[in-house]
Amino acid sequence: HVQLVESGGDSVQAGGSLRLSCAASGGTASSYCMGWFRQSPGKEREGVASVDPIGDTNYAQSVKGRFTVSKDNNKNILYLQMNGLKPEDTDVYYCAARFGIIATLIPGRYTYWGEGTQVTVS
């Protein structure tokens, strides 16, 4: 059973940067896909960025060129570097993991989820 704990959420001004972290336990990060998702109240959860076991990444069009996902397999930590933040990036950000080889951005394909961390951009 994989457990995920996000951290790094904060309130920042537009144009600023944040780095989110997701610490994984109960499994080996190198053996599964991990991703970042976000959700606002009343809206569906959407995929932001994901990375597969060999390091191939996938990004939502809205964050390409601004966000970077990376994974430290030795530390079992997933990161999301967010630059050029916009007010529309305000959301609760969730970390997720799944056993598979495709870095999908479809939330329903993920098995394990963290509790989320709030990002507010004003």
Throw out a few tags for this protein.
7-stranded mixed β-sheet; 0% helix; 4-stranded antiparallel β-sheet; mainly beta; 122 residues; 48% strand
Overview of the structural elements:
By secondary structure, the protein is mainly β. Helix content is 0%, strand content 48%. The chain has no helices and 11 strands. The strands form 2 sheets. Strands 2, 4, 5, 6, 9, 10 and 11 form a 7-stranded mixed sheet that branches. A hairpin with a 6-residue loop joins strand 4 and strand 5. It is globular. The mean pLDDT is 94.
What does the overall shape look like?
A: globular
Mean of pLDDT:
94
SSE string: EEEEEEEEEEE
Helix content: under 10%
Structural class: mainly beta
Structural Rg: 13 Å
Helix count?
0
For the record, give the distance between the C-alpha atoms at the N and C termini, rounded to a whole number: 37 Å
β-strand amount: over 45%
The stretches of 5 or more residues where confidence is low (pLDDT under 50) are none
Described by strand count, sense and barrel closure, the largest sheet is:
7 strands, mixed
What's the number of extended β-strand segments? 11
